[in-house]
């Protein structure tokens, strides 16, 4: 019942989440329920894997159609792809891998950032009524705090959408390196509180500052938040971080980290099945 497994037939497509540990993952329940609801002939398993390379070479038949990757295998997964999406290559990590039906080759993607961008676009679109063809991020000044895997992903993603990017990081050298790749501006995180060249900017936190158990911490002082029209936090434990609570108090629109997770599940579902995601069902399972 937990995984809602359907009867396995000769043409059932096998999917799974590759990680270690994996017992806590909500993904098997989520995707099995979602596959079933749209009548897709697939299953999705929790895969406790030590060596991604060994796993991939053992389960190489076309029945093994796609995988999600989680800690600690996002980097190893990339090395096992036949082909890697350019953004995933820049980030140095994949979040999902799809087997092409024509030649059986495995292609890796990083869709984590797409979830964050979709959630931010939706919140912006809803507030300014922009036409769907133009990203509401185009032309916006977008400040990314953090320059690790998640920071890189978001910086590339919003750059592609036409935003002007600022990278703020504790270690300035990493901010500079990332900013130079997206035609952006680098700043030390400690100086971000005094940076407000214009009003109505967008702020995204990808650092771990404010995550459980140190929930009283915040990466940017409250006084600075009034310059931002929208604030997103990739942290989702807790859901309402100090940063988001203070942004809300300063009058900004806020986007929760949980929305990033929900939206990347929509994207992965569509990659796995080629069908539109059952969005309400996915929201209900993850609620
Ligand atoms: P992820 O894959 O989640 O992005 P990561 O690659 O380990 O994780 O990156 C962590 C990010 O959080 C980095 O930008 C890191 O800043 P440094 O490059 O200076 O290390 C940032 N970070 C972590 N702890 C921090 C702290 N206490 N204050 C400020 N930034 C912090």
UniProtKB/TrEMBL annotation:
Residue intervals of the Shikimate dehydrogenase substrate binding N-terminal domain: 17-95
Domain Quinate/shikimate 5-dehydrogenase/glutamyl-tRNA reductase: 135-209
Top-level lineage group: Eukaryota
SDH C-terminal domain ranges (all copies): 257-286
Name of this chain's protein: Shikimate dehydrogenase
Lineage summary: Eukaryota, Viridiplantae, Streptophyta, Embryophyta, Tracheophyta
Parent-protein start and end of this portion: 883 to 1169 of 1172
């Amino acid at each position: 019942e937990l995984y809602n497994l359907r009867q396995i037939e000769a043409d059932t497509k096998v999917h799974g989440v590759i990680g270690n540990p994996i017992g806590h993952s909500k993904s098997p329940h989520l995707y099995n329920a979602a596959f079933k609801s749209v009548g897709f002939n697939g299953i999705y398993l929790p895969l406790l894997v030590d060596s991604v390379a060994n796993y991939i070479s053992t389960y190489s038949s076309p029945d093994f159609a796609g995988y999600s990757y989680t800690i600690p295998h996002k980097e190893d997964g990339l090395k096992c792809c036949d082909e890697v999406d350019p953004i995933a290559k820049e980030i140095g990590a994949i979040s999902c891998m799809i087997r092409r039906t024509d030649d059986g080759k495995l292609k890796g993607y990083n869709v984590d950032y797409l979830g964050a961008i979709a959630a931010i676009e939706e919140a912006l679109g809803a507030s300014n009524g922009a036409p769907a063809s133009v990203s509401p991020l185009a032309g916006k000044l977008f400040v990314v705090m953090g320059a690790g895997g998640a920071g890189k992903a978001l910086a590339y993603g919003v750059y592609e959408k036409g935003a002007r990017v600022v990278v703020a990081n504790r270690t300035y050298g990493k901010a500079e390196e990332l900013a130079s790749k997206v035609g952006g501006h680098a700043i030390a995180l400690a100086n971000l509180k005094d940076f407000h060249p214009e009003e109505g900017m967008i702020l995204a936190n990808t650092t771990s500052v404010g995550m459980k158990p140190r929930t009283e911490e915040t990466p940017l002082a409250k006084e600075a938040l009034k310059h931002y029209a929208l604030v997103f936090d990739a942290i989702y434990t807790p859901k309402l971080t100090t940063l988001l609570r203070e942004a809300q108090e300063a009058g900004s629109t806020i986007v929760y980290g949980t929305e990033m997770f929900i939206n990347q599940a929509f994207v992965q579902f569509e990659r796995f099945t080629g069908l539109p995601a059952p969005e309400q069902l996915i929201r209900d399972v993850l609620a």
